[in-house]
Amino acid sequence: MVDAAVGVLLDKLLILLISEGRRFLELDDQFEETKNELRYMQSYLKEADRVTRKDRNEVLKMVMSDLRELVYDVEDIIEDFQLLFLKKHQGCAPNFTSCCSPTLLKSRRQMGKRLRKINQEVRKVKERMIAYVGTTPHLTGKEEGGNRPLTYPILIDEAELVGLEDDTAKIRNWILEANGLPTVIGIVGMAGIGKTTLAQKICDSVNVQESFKHSLIVSVSQSFKLDELLRKMLNKLNVEEKSLRGKDVDELLKKLKQELDEKYLIVLDDIWGTDQGMWWASLKSALPRVRGSCVIVTTRNEEVAKSMGATIRHIHHPRILSDEDSWFLFSKVAFAKNGGNCTNPDLEGLGKEIVVRCGGLPLTIKVVGGMMLGKGYSIHEWRRISKHLKEELASSMKDELVISRLELSYEELPGHLKPCLLCFAMYPEDSEIPFLNMVYRWIGEGFVWGRNGKTAFEIGEECFAELFNRCLIAVGKDTFGRRFGSCRMHDMVRDMVIKIAREESFVSLDGRVGPVFSVQSRRLGILRNTAVESIENSSKLRTLVGMNIASEKIILSVKTKLCELRWLRVLYLSLSTTKIDEDLLAKDWLSGIGSLQHLVYLYIEKTALRKLPDSIGNLRNLQILSLFDCPNLERLPSSITTLEKLTTFHIVSCDSFECMPEGLGNLSNLEQLSWFRSKNSRLKNGYQIPQLKNLTKLRELRMKINYEEQTDEGEWNVLSMLNQLQLLLVDFVGNSPSPGLVRKLDHQLSPLKCLRELWLWNFPGERTPAWLNPTSLPNLQFLTIYWGKINYLGPKFWDCSSRVWKVEVLVLGDLYDLEEEWPRMQRAMPSLRLLKVYRCPKLKSFPFDVSVEGRWRIWRKEEEEEREPMVNQV
After folding, report:
1. What is the pLDDT of residue 511?
2. What pLDDT, in 10s, does the model give residues 461-470?
3. Cα separation of 768 and 457, whole Å?
4. Is residue 708 part of a domain?
5. Which domain holds residue 475?
6. Do 508 and 519 meet the contact criterion of CB atoms below 8 Å apart?
7. Do 836 and 810 form a contact (C-beta atoms < 8 A)?
8. pLDDT (tens digit per residue) in 241-278
């Protein structure tokens, strides 16, 4: 079994050495020798990858450890040489003086020595391979190319049930029949049996939704804090995070009691115990005694449910799935390409053998089904997996069976997905991980990169979709109905990932996130208030992630200065408060950021920084810069406009931010540009819209426009020059606009032929602008209209004489004055499959009650189509 990161990085290095070989010839024949040795490694590792984790011997593990270090060192040398090359030829063609400067000659000699040393070490490792392991590891018969990309989606999610209809009906009746003081209901069962899925399905049912004003589900991790749980609950009740800053537990409890003003349903998911700090007694005191309200508790321990007030009558134990239901669930995943139907009798027989060995657990069935989806219809592969599961069943202890089945799904992953999955080990239990952050992390680590005409982000999105299709992660759609918003990982899958990450020294973590891993790792995660006195192996650290840090002491306790982490690729700093002293953060730590010349991904959240160091312009490899919720940040240094590799630039909820630096158009490689505001933003200036014309690679643009400022006639037409633009968000801000300004905004946009997503926020007019029509936006599939005083959709919106709307998803939110009719909407948008509405009380004839406050109302075309045959039968 190959070290996950080594396999991916080795492939990347060989591609680099082959494609840019001429550059590397400057260092004699050292790079050529390195390339040849790496090819040998690659062949060897492909054979070693056929050895299962159970069959790995200690010598093979040591070989993998040696190879890991060598591959990392080779990558470091190659990237150093690339930086040297850029510095050497910066701004002009190379000449004799620049090529022969003493500094550059010295650097080249040092790199040559490093490469010779690496090549010597590679030869030693190869000799040890042959001497102790043999030229080819013991093979298990695994076919080359057994995994194939999953380019089609699985139409199954956490809320889709199989074989639990009776369970759902029983608990739903308990809920709807409750008429006394808050009732506690327990769902008790082993991990992976479907407790969360059952609770989610119950909450999503129409009868339950209409019976409660408030319904929310929150995960309660094994090592949670009450204040964090309360913040999660309040966020689910649409309380803004900023209004909760600085509040202690007592204040949060009072706020929760205030928000739960009417009948409520609360699901507390995955509770391990109630004795730590008497948290349940405190939380219970904040739950109003509203008649008919309910609390659902999911737990592995019945005594926990009883201690929280669930009676025997109101405790439910989900059963394992029957053979028939197990096969039905497995088929929906494994044969998703054929609509869940198996057309090969031989394959069906093998599939049913595999299903029996999953023990009736929905989690295991879905994950193993996802694994088989990647195998296609190879009888040999299906027979091999069935045999492997049979061997595991015979050799594993009962408590290890689930993990062993899940571990097999990891072994069978394509090599490029393994390190992507192991990155999840760094995040706390029950974390909601933003999709974008994870893809950016993979790009920063070098696990995904642009190739075959696709950008690195597109490749990362495909990897994310594959992990979802294989049922290894659960994906939540974002607020506006797009496919990916955030993701999370089932506890059992996470346990498996942590186990493998430990074995491969993939990441080091503080005790609050998980086990403390080997200091040989090049990745370190710090969470909350756990101090890290020093960073072991700091000179080789590649990723440093600090999440929810609550004190400057945590940062300063890391005695290693940032400038010493010269190989760092990813720096992710998220504080839990903006009260950390700015000087301590900026002068004592971030001041060294300019030394991180290998940095690819920089994320900074909730800091008191007023500015970033000018030295940020030294980050020649920086591709992704994300600044979130930094309320004091006013300006960015002009040196940012020299970051020629920057592809992603986000500035979100930075209240004091005034304007983008001049020279924005110099960032010609930008693919994503976002500039959100908060409600209290003091932004004065826009994007310097004319400069956008130079950003020809831009695919996503989120922009804020102050309509009080004058813009030149036709200035917005620059956007029509961005031929790759697929997503546009325009957020208008300002005081009461004049009629002249509204007329100007009404027409200032030329057709955007490639645009697929449009988000229109706070448009100042009483009707939608004239350019919002199917002719100007011929390929639009996703449309969101949010906030503002729009009372009707403009005449151009309905003009379908020459072209009809292709919109599939429509979101309308906080449009209190909007008056439109549903039948007209359906006629204008025949492709519409999803409609989401929030606080639009004047809509007419819509398929749900629009007067319901504080809750999204959702219509799905497929649900309507499923109901129609039933009506016809009646």
Report:
1. 45
2. 889 988 888 8
3. 32
4. no
5. 413-506
6. yes
7. yes
8. 778 877 888 989 999 998 888 889 999 988 887 665 57
